Amino acid sequence: MRMGWWKNKREVRLLVHLLFPLCLHWIGEEMTHSVLVDVTTNALCPGTSTCPQAIYLNGLQQTTVGIFKMVVLPVLGQLSDDYGRKPLLLFTISTTIFPFALIAINKSKGFVYAYYVLRTISLIFTQGSIYCITAAYVADVVDDNKKAAGFSWMMGFFSISHVLGNVLARFLPGTYIFQVSVVLLIFSPVYMTLYLSETVTPAPKLDQHLPYFKKALKIVEEQYNSMRYAANVVISSPTLKYISLALFFYELGMSGVNSTLLYYLKAAFGFDKNQFSEILMVVGIGQIISQLLVLPLITPSVGEKLILCAAFLSSALYALLYGLAWAPWVPYFTASLGVVNVVVKPSSFALISKASSSTDQGKAQGFVLAVQSIALLLSPLAMTPLTNLFLSKNAPFDCKGFSFVCASFSVATSLCFAWMLKPNASKTPSEVDAENAEAPLILASDASDPQRLRV
């Protein structure tokens, strides 16, 4: 990465205080993933390696989250533009503490069901929204020519957290994993409260003395107008429109793969916590290399569009190989494709950010993520019963990973839309002014205005 990145100490300080607590939060979440498969299977289907109840519960959770995220994500993105990134980040990451605290207390069947209820509520507010608000924060802090590198570093730190979380899961005894996770999840919002600076100056409100009922109605009306405006911003921009479609089909396939993968590997190859952790570590190490070393170096040369297309192609192959896995070593090899797959998020964040005005960062990111949540809603409706069918003795033919093969075709469709992107097409000044004139509650100051940063 160019040394100029490090010359601005203000940028570095703001990003450190953002990414350090998020890393701890991601470590606390990641270290539980490989263990949860064994915990839920032992609680709901004791003595078996295949647990249809757990797979259906995961599908139900994913569908419920997808329904509510379609509304919640754009609202959270808009609220972060209006009221600041810090309070929204504090709220979202704090909701993760409670479900894991339940499992830390007890791993019985009743507590596992309670965990699923609280975790579903938590995911409605956290899945996608943390990336959305964090991406908007990074966009506030760094210049346009550094945004791709900034998003790459953001996702790179996520990948480091991914590896560290799985290292802890691999070597810590299972009885201590959830206790350590809860400690990290509590520490993160505490650190943010003390050290994270706000990058948005809330717009002055002229309705502070309105009666509460009228104020509530006004807030609902403002949220509706803002969401409608965000939809207009995305639809009127060819780049945002095509990337929304591409990410929809990508999420439709990959969310189904990610939600059932560990249960599939346990049923097909008898994998346990240790094998899960090793596979996830392979993925994480590849992600670190890609995001912190490869992506910042090649982005200026080839551009975000080609990187995104390569990531979609690799993801389609990733799902296909898992579906056709014929030996226990194949999942380990397939996991290495994560070195390319992981650049979907930073490259798409950069494309969305460049196609949006400085006052619409949160709205645009939130609306595109809401489109993805529609796919998150639809995916389990096909993947969950299909996965259970081919893992059972009643499968029509012998291909336990057939649902993953189907998912690979959905991901391949996203490649077609990504190829149609024209990221260099820019709006004329008159178009930008016309759109900004319609925006409700947008900030008058630009992201580069020093008054917008509270350092």
From TrEMBL:
Q: What is its main location?
A: membrane
Membrane topology summary: Multi-pass membrane protein
Q: Which UniProt keywords apply?
A: Membrane, Signal, Transmembrane, Transmembrane helix, Transport
CDD domains from the UniProt entry: MFS_SLC46_TetA_like
Q: Is S-adenosyl-L-methionine included in the keywords of this UniProt record?
A: no
Residues annotated as signal peptide:
1-25
Chain coiled-coil ranges = none
| Spans traversing the lipid bilayer | 88-105, 117-139, 151-169, 176-196, 279-299, 306-326, 364-382, 402-421
Task: Name any GO cellular component annotation.
Answer: membrane
Q: Write the protein's name.
A: Major facilitator superfamily (MFS) profile domain-containing protein
- List the taxonomic lineage: Eukaryota, Viridiplantae, Streptophyta, Embryophyta, Tracheophyta
